[in-house]
Amino acid sequence: MLLDLKILARAYIWLSLTHRLCPLFSCMKGRVRRRSSRYVWIVAVSATSLLCCVKQRDVSIHPERMVEGPGIVMMPYASSRVKGFRDMSGLICPPTPGRVRDDLIGWQSKDQDPVCVHDTLDDGISPAALELRWRVVIPKDGQYEIAPSGFGLGAWGRIVSRGSSIGDYVSTATVVIDGRAKSCAASWSIELAKSMVTGPWARVAAFSGWIEMPNISLGKCTGGDALEVSVRLVGESNRGSIDVDWFGVSARHDDDVNRIFALRPKLDAPKQSAHTP
What's this model's pTM, rounded to 2 decimal places? Predict the structure, then answer.
């Protein structure tokens, strides 16, 4: 009897933790969705899509204080772009205007359906992307880095690989942050989810949560060059789909869109004094 109570207690704690970390259990259950007059059933869930529920880190989604220091230039928001993603009506997903809606700068579903979908049946195997862009002019020659201000970057959704009796099939979702000017460039990326299948069935992997954006060193840049910084969610599959429920930057006010990133001069590391033993 005591053993049974311990098992029940552990099960209750695990389910409570899962419920807190996975809103609406979206990372644990497949959903039926309608698109282009057809239905796609998720028939298998990979172990990674379940483990995503419990492997979460605390990430601040609003800055406690803004980036500070000499020579810092905040980056104004420039535009957004959509490639290869469609809404549930089959039209190209609209770009975001860069205004805060429901504490988000980006794309967000208003119901149980994904806000944007890339499906190889309709869109081919070219990578798809949801992209936010910022642009600034480099003030003078020097070493620089892209410094996020502390706003949270979040992504929720799932990827599906649809298998066949012949071949291997892979779907991935990745977040990429690029900084590019004529004189300098740098990039950072993180894979959100990956599903692989061999055989005539489907496999799904979910992604959900906040991403901590790092400082990105650009190296030596030339003053007067235009620097463009892009944040992209890239979905790619050779036979499957990428469903996006939510992607963007958490913000409270429209003015926050111009404070997401700063261009900061990179300070040289202090030189160690030489000494003789």
Answer: 0.75
